[in-house]
Amino acid sequence: xxxxxxxxxxxxxxxxxxxxxxxxxxxxxxxxxxxxxxxxxxxxxxxxxxxxxxxxxxxxxxxxxxxxxxxxxxxxxxxxxxxxxxxxxxxxxxxxxxxxxxxxxxxxxxxxxxxxxxxxxxxxxxxxxxxxxxxxxxxxxxxxxxxxxxxxxxxxxxxxxxxxxxxxxxxxxxxxxxxxxxxxxxxxxxxxxxxxxxxxxxxxxxxxxxxxxxxxxxxxxxxxxxxxxxxxxxxxxxxxxxxxxxxxxxxxxxxxxxxxxxxxxxxxxxxxxxxxxxxxxxxxxxxxxxxxxxxxxxxxxxxxxxxxxxxxxxxxxxxxxxxxxxxxxxxxxxxxxxxxxxxxxxxxxxxxxxxxxxxxxxxxxxxxxxxxxxxxxxxxxxxxxxxxxxxxxxxx
Length: 396
Description:
- The protein is α+β, with helices and mostly antiparallel strands.
- It is built from 9 helices and 8 strands.
- The chain is elongated and about 130 Å long.
- It has helices at 2-30, 35-41, 72-81, 101-119, 123-137, 146-150, 176-190, 322-331, 357-361, and strands at 203-206, 218-223, 226-230, 300-305, 310-314, 338-343, 365-370, 373-378.
- Helix 4 crosses helix 7 and helix 4 packs across helix 8.
């Protein structure tokens, strides 16, 4: 009898334990804390996180260029205390230029000035500066031309985004050799080169200063003496850099000494546009202006026919070939249609207008404008160009 009672008690205990275990299993099956484990056992695709559309976000405001008042040593010490972002530094996409040869030359001139004046004669530093300029161009918060990005706010001493445009740096004329080296960096960037270390950075500063905004952005990398930052949140991610390049470059007049002609170096000239170019000494075009070259980058107009909108140019072979397009743009500013032809060999330059077909074929450079659409072509056997489409037929 005692054994029967003991056996019944054991079975009762087992039944109670099974009941409790069943209850626990049911609760565990539907308790929210168990969902991650269930998804691991039975994986199913998760819905993507909802990202606010760009037009529903408020654009970030441009940062002040002012810096904290401290010594370079103290600035370097403070910069070292700002940690780098722990988020992946995604490289920027290749820049894809879509514009005319004239716009490309103006854009390259602006970008050359930025990389040289901002980074000095440091090739890697120059590449980093060029990457920031192109990153900004593709971001909704900035202008959509290269010159527009470089010279944004330059009319104000405390508003310029790149300090060299408003701090008197143009008083320092770089050597032709350093300008050529910087120009190669600019051309390479416009052609699609990407400096991966910069990522999607839109801001930078040297390590011997501390801007007011340094703690409000994500610090992503350091290239030599420059520290690079991107905006926090969605605006610093690759999808935010979706804007396209827009034609219509405007060249700041302070850059004219680098593109010729020599008589165009007017410090007071603020912009070079199709409708508002004013270059000293270039409006009176006649045969009497046919003088020997006095200096490099001295491309000049020798003959003109205002009725037909035709101009004859003497090309300085030492100048950048792209500068011929900028000067032709100036010559044709009030003429449409317009035709500007240039020769670098004095013996081949026509002495009168109109031109014969054979003379036009021999031109080393041709610029055309019709209904405000312009084009430019070079003899690529004489002048190397980055794009074969810019070559005159038969000179590729």
